[in-house]
Amino acid sequence: MFRDLLRRLRQRPAGGQRTTHTDSQLRESADIAITSARRTLARRMPLIPAHDWNEGRARVDVQDVLDTAREHFGLTDVDRARAAAVLRARYELRTGPLDLDTDAYDC
Question: With the C-alpha atoms ordered 8, 11, 17, 18, is the resulting torsion angle positive or negative?
Fold first, then answer.
């Protein structure tokens, strides 16, 4: 009985650590997707006339985060709503509304 209790106590943090690790990987995936969108915009910026800069905004989508998470970290079963929440947080932290659009608020 005591061994079962110890085993359960040891298993509990592992699940929490796994969730924390996955969240960390999702945050990193969102950062990579945002950086990629900004680099794409920076390459296009000299080509966009100054009066059209508002129309020349870049976009980072939830699917970009999911694709990045799969490619970089092998995460294949991430909930779309969870990825959207992480993207919203990272988007706001990294001042996304200044130059990027997103669909993270639609999920």
Answer: negative
| Eight-class DSSP state of 5 | H
What are 36-83's pLDDT values in tens digits?
998 988 887 766 555 555 566 789 999 999 999 999 999 999 999 999
Q: How many CA atoms lie within 13 A of 98 on its CB side?
A: 6
CB 78 within 8 A of CB 69: yes
Give the integer Cα–Cα distance in Å for 7 and 16: 15
pLDDT band at 8 (very low <50, low <70, confident <90, very high): low
Q: What are phi and psi of 75, to 5 degrees?
A: -80, 115
Taking the CA atoms of residue 95, residue 98, residue 100 and residue 105 in that order, the dihedral angle to the nearest 10 degrees is 70
Distance CA 64, CA 107 (A): 14
Q: Specify the DSSP class assigned to residue 103.
A: S
